[in-house]
Amino acid sequence: MTQYGFKILIVEDDATLGDVLKEALTRKGHFPFHVLKPDEALQLLMRQNFDLMLIDCLLPNMTGTELVKKIKAEPNFSPSTKIVLMSGIYNDKSFQQESMQETGASGFLKKPFKIEEVDLFLSSIKPKMVETKEQPRKKLYETFEKEKVSPREKRKLIESLEEVDGYDLPFIYSLLSETKSSGHLNIFKSTGEVSGVSFSQGHIVGVDVDDQSTILGHMLLQSGYVLPEDLQEILQDKSPRKIGQKLIDSSKLSPHAFDLILGEQMNVRLTRTIVEGQVKVNFVATEVENVPAAIDSEQLLIYLHDWVASKLPIGWLESLYLMWSGQKILTTAAWKSDHPVMKTSFVKRLSQLPQKIEAGVSLTELLNLDGYDSVSVHKALHLMLLKGIIIFSAEKMALDLVAQRKHLKKIQAQLQDKDSSEVLELFQELLKDKPDSTWLDEFIGFIGPAPEDPEVLKVWKNAKDRFEKAIRIHWDQSSLEITEIRKNEKSQQKLVSLQKLDEVKALLQLNQFSKASDLIKVIKNIDDVPGGRLSKAWIQIGTMTAEKKAVAMKEVELELMQIPPDERYDSIYLYVMGLYLKAKGDLSGAKKSFEKSLAINPSFIVAKREITLLDSQVNQPKQDIFNMDLKDVVAGFFKKKAG
Amino acid sequence: MSKFQSKLNRQGSKVVVQLGGVIDEDADFTTLSIQDAQEVHIDMDEIKSINSCGIREWIKWIGTSGNSKIVYSKCPKVIVDQMNMVDGFLPSVATVESFYVPYYNEESGSEKNVLFRYGVEYKDGQVQYPTAVKDESGKPMEMDIIENKYFKFIKSKA
Questions:
Q1: CATH number, span A7-123
Q2: Is the pLDDT of residue A222 over 90?
Q3: What is the reported pTM?
């Protein structure tokens, strides 16, 4: 039952009569479903529960009483569901009493009946207690509202976890680090893959993933700790020692530098554990030896920033924080103006964020501020919450009329371009583990009660209607089927996107930015496609104009920040980084980046071209064209390049 | 000395394996051949921890037993957690003779592992809780686990 209506199943083989009944009940604000055949009713019951069932006595293949008996035998059947039989033919009292006795039905409606007669049965339905399962994941996030949580409580919370979202893992890593835990966090994907992260006194000392490809060579080259020719020489040595050891033994790499690379390698592997979908986790507390390449809490903050920036989709964060959007953000005892989190890019991008938080503000209010984009706000707050320097107050802040209208309009806009599944996906964190019959109540709890102001009420109603429509569509169709279809569509779409992105990259290498820009626009969910953000950044740099350079550079920075660590050891990434540094005016940094790109992929012609261009710029004496002779200026433009 | 300790004892067609220490990437199961045994009894009293590599190794090893009767005994919490979570960790042909349940007293912080035995503290999907568990100073202790989660394997075997 929702506060706003009941879920009612009508089993009526007369299509017209069933539709009329459905329409009348919908008008009264209920959620009726109409099926024509008994087997359709049984199928529907396998997936959902109802508050009331109206069942015709004369149905194809079986009688209404037989159907009721079958329904009651269903394991999914809730005893609190009221069943009412209906008939236009069997109307004698003895039949009615007998069939009610036989089936345990609550009543009998003689057709035709008035819709008000159904109300009588509905009024006797009491709101049932929703069985609440133990939800350790929810408890984990409840720490976002608690000022003090002891290390033991935190450890116990982690130990109690079983199924979590892959995107929860950065939070879990952070907690294990903060509580100085020792042991193994084992992670199980639904595909059967097992990974693990080992902690020693809060330091990450080992990461075991199924995909053991190391990209160690690329990392060594990119770091600059090893020269390409030295690496080539070592690779030709066929002795069984590991590359790192060979490099150290031949004094081509220092042991300390190698430890740093091993730490970075762990970061890449940790990044691979953060995946979309459900994973199971289990923490085995035990003593674990420390290693020199361990990731300490300081280093972990940098990686946390990387993961929040590049791995956590904004849609997931928006959905996670919906439940707190109206609550005031409070600072904790750990809050300091010089806390390392304050120096992270997302916090710095938002002008005066720490001051605004200190003054007392909610997430909704932050999102209403100019220059405060959703990505930066959500990611900055997520980092602050992970590090425990802020929490949310337990109560919602009261919004004034203007803010409430703004808030509702934002929700309305969020819902507008989405199909029904996307609407429900947006609210998935809010609705998680809650029976679908309470979803509308949850949504209304989120947007607040109907406002009195007629204009605001209009927006409120629009948002509510859109959400209600999404629920109706979800209920009308088999949600299992939809999930399956969407999964298939997603993987097919991903393949098409990857193919198109390859075309984009080919165009970019030919400097055809405008064509590449047109093509990338048609790729759906480009930000989720590996290499998508990098190509976007490349296009932005390539199409940058002098007038809009400052804005465009900020956008490029944001794109580059959101590229996951495991996609950074790649010649294209280094090339685009080189272009970015060049656009910033850091020519020596740019050259180094192009050189590294070329070291990773010696046939990457565009990187070679950029190095040549930079060399010619450095070698050419600076000329002041404003004070030069016009003849020399023109000659300079058309002069043949040497070599 | 290896972090992983193992001992195999053949008694006719029955094999008794005692395991202890750390089950990780260094744990060597190749010396513990259970292929031809009709019954494999695995005593896990001394196991301290298991990581993801160890879990993979375990599943590979236990899979070599084919259709032999397998009995797990004195399973510590780290093993019970895997039995509940990882497909294949507790094969369908295996039974659990006994396992440990952690208890805790919040006031004194004392901890203790209590051995639950088949037929005494649990049987066929049912758990028969011990009447009173007390710490050394006589203070009552509570189970330090989430029951639904921890006893899942018992229900799945019912």
A1: 3.40.50.2300
A2: no
A3: 0.74
